[in-house]
Write a structure and sequence with these properties.
The protein is α/β, with parallel strands linked by helices. 38% of the residues lie in helices and 20% in strands. It catalyses: (R)-pantoate + beta-alanine + ATP = (R)-pantothenate + AMP + diphosphate + H(+).
């Protein structure tokens, strides 16, 4: 496994590999890796000849009152995990290498839809930071395929939109959510939870599953959302949102829609937890 910090060096290396006929699979991360991230490496290995991961905590996607300064940085452990998975290259740039003139005046890339709702509503500017850094990383790595986790479902859809709108020759693949034994979606921020909160956090998943069951019974959507918010609030969560939207465009779902997404975000103690579930009513199966 080769670790490269310089963007130009990685870019030239990738271009040489592509000229030699190799395909590139890319998994961008912010580090503090868990099994969810590593499952994306597994997918990349099935889709490309060469697998590249990046570790970069991107300041542009953090708000002024968020946890950029305290975000867990575990580089040595991350590199060991990536090497054990058979990753070929790891890109570990500094902030100055990604934003030489500073993030505030750096050219930004913004998707003009899908970004104002759900996580975008409570985290203004977040997705502009995501699409900007992903665009930079894509230009450096030159991937044929890139893999993102479905836990950040809105992010996945925003990136697919950017790639489609800007006609990038990159296939975007979503990897399934990997969960703790109690059903909680794995997250780098789960480490903020106390042992008790870690168990309590599984209730978010239980409410989502219960809501999905009710959707299969064709229960009205608005009362389901209201009931979920009440149950979570009563259990000690501070709910950011609990929404039932269309998978295709993340707009609010109606009774005539069949391909739905239950999306939720809520604080429990320090961390803000997110989770989701695709619900497909036409074949009466949910993923």
């Amino acid at each position: 496994m080769e670790i490269i910090q310089d963007p130009k060096q990685l870019q030239s290396t990738m271009l040489r590999l592509k000229q030699a006929g190799k395909t590139i699979g890319f998994v961008p991360t912010m580090g503090n890796l868990h099994q969810g991230h590593l499952s994306l490496i597994d997918i990349a290995k099935t889709k490309a000849d060469i697998v590249v991961a990046s570790i970069f905590v991107n300041p542009m996607q953090f708000g002024p009152n968020e946890d950029f300064g305290n975000y867990p940085r575990t580089m040595d452990d991350d590199l060991s995990k990536l090497e054990a998975k058979g990753t070929d290259f790891v890109f570990t740039p500094t902030i100055d290498q990604v934003y030489p003139l500073g993030k505030d005046i750096h050219t930004s890339v913004e998707a003009n839809r899908l970004t104002e709702k759900l996580c975008g509503a409570s985290r203004p500017g977040h997705f502009r930071g995501v699409t900007t850094v992903v665009n930079i990383l894509f230009n450096i790595v030159q991937p044929n395929v890139a893999i993102f986790g479905k836990k950040d479902y809105q992010q996945l859809q925003v990136i697919k939109t950017m790639v489609n709108d800007l006609m990038m020759p990159i296939e975007i693949i979503g990897g399934d959510i990997v969960r703790e034994d109690n059903g909680l979606a794995m997250s780098s921020r789960n480490g903020y939870l106390t042992k008790r909160e870690l168990e309590e956090a599984s209730y978010l998943r239980k409410i989502i599953l219960n809501t999905a069951e009710k959707l299969h019974q064709r229960s009205p959507i608005e009362p389901l959302k209201e009931n979920a918010v009440k149950l979570l609030s009563d259990a000690g969560f501070k709910v950011d949102y609990f929404e039932i939207v269309r998978q295709s465009d993340l707009e609010s779902a109606s009774s005539s829609d069949n391909h739905l997404l239950i999306a939720a975000a809520a604080w429990l103690g320090q961390p803000r937890l997110i989770d989701n579930l695709e619900v497909n009513l036409t074949d009466e199966q949910s993923e």
